Amino acid sequence: xxxxxxxxxxxxxxxxxxxxxxxxxxxxxxxxxxxxxxxxxxxxxxxxxxxxxxxxxxxxxxxxxxxxxxxxxxxxxxxxxxxxxxxxxxxxxxxxxxxxxxxxxxxxxxxxxxxxxxxxxxxxxxxxxxxxxxxxxxxxxxxxxxxxxxxxxxxxxxxxxxxxxxxxxxxxxxxxxxxxxxxxxxxxxxxxxxxxxxxxxxxxxxxxxxxxxxxxxxxxxxxxxxxxxxxxxxxxxxxxxxxxxxxxxxxxxxxxxxxxxxxxxxxxxxxxxxxxxxxxxxxxxxxxxxxxxxxxxxxxxxxxxxxxxxxxxxxxxxx
Length: 319
Prior knowledge:
Elements: E1 16-27, E2 30-41, E3 45-49, H1 56-63, E4 71-76, E5 79-81, H2 85-89, E6 92-95, H3 107-117, H4 122-135, H5 151-161, E7 169-173, H6 181-196, E8 200-204, H7 208-214, E9 217-222, E10 225-230, H8 232-239, E11 243-248, H9 252-258, E12 266-270, E13 273-278, H10 282-289, E14 295-300, H11 303-311
Parallel strand pairs: 3-8, 3-9, 6-7, 7-8
Antiparallel strand pairs: 1-2, 1-4, 4-5, 9-10, 11-13, 11-14, 12-13
């Protein structure tokens, strides 16, 4: 699939765990989701990327049948949504942005009570509990209250809870927000283990390195519309020069205008940082060696470069 391939398929394919066609949602006369189409194949991680207010959360809510769309079609694990949303959600797991664990229950009780929502009895839960606790590395905390857990432990428990019903598809909305690097890496290991077991993941994240590590394919959306779709490395190659120089310090902007502009393909100035994009950055590197007052970082292009080029560098308010 090409980087801008957003063509609508004529029918839902057998291996599509989620198929969204021309989805629309309007609030206050303004489109929040504006003709969005994408599908997720069984066994892949698909990421939705976009700035605040791009329509990601509204899209997830529509796909789960929690928000009524104003147009388009959704098939979730083969069921039409919202008409059969309740039936579809039996085969879906959800990891929300904010942990909503019950503070009055222990780790084990949180899992058992959640299992009852899916009609799982005590015998079934006794069979599943050891595997869920092992997956979350919380066997030693099985009788602990939620207040006794660290942020990373709570996040792992929320992830384990989403697996209680052995779902076909797991919605993960910002799964590692607020975690330290060690906890994030542990969550990434758990998500990779799920994918290795054939699970399917729909991921939203603001961490570009997270999407680059986990996503087989991704979509960049803004103002409710898809602006790019494809494999991460494919998209980077399609939109961004392969080498990037980040130039810092007093005089970086002046250097960029006097010297740098003629040595690279493209420049972007943000604050005191100049981003220089080039196919071959050797001449720019030589010029920077003659500027001892400037600091710089030379690196390959990444998903963050793609995201900022497509959606802009200006701040967006939460919405």
